[in-house]
Amino acid sequence: MNLPIILGSSSVFRRQQLERLGLPFQTAAPDFDETPLPGEAAADTALRLAVGKARSLAKRFPEALIIGADQVAWCGGRQLGKPGNVADAQHMLAELSGQCIGFYSAVCLYNSFSDGLQCHVDTTLVTMRQLSSEQISRYLEREPDAVHCAGAAKSEGLGAALLEKAKSNDPNALIGLPLFRLVGFLQNEGVSVI
Predict the structure, then answer these.
(1) Domain total in the chain
(2) pTM for this one?
(3) Is residue 159 part of a domain?
(4) CA-CA distance, 51 to 26, in Å (whole number)?
(5) Is 19 contained in some domain?
(6) Which residues 6+ apart lie within 8 Å of 139 measured at CB?
(7) Is 70 a catalytic residue?
């Protein structure tokens, strides 16, 4: 049975990533509370949210392959959210200047017909450059969407200039969707990507 692929995300970045695979899919905004739980580790939060997003769409798409994804950034013993506005992004980037940040990018593929679930969390360790307040201001002027990214670092754009180094098993994960593992999940469901 060829099940339709649903990307359970309203993220433009994840949609653009999935489009690179050349597979037909549609997007749907998940209905799931994304509030982190007290004391929850970053990788656990990312995984719980990815699974929850995918499963929240099962009633709307009872016979589909539903992709759920989430990313949580962690630095200095705390989770970093999406700043949401320029002032918070400036403050966040000033705090992160020169620091090592862990980005935990979870992906799951949920077969809503068989109730099968495949999940993975990819860890990307990033070292930020030392940034002046002028550099931070210029970056946010030129990359206004960064306020909607974890850690205010839009790495697929000008945010790459903020990074000194990154270590990951999947360079796609830092953008928000671990494609290497997702391709394997799709193949396990009989979807030929190549």
Answers:
(1) 1
(2) 0.91
(3) yes
(4) 18
(5) yes
(6) 93, 131, 146, 158, 159, 161, 162
(7) yes
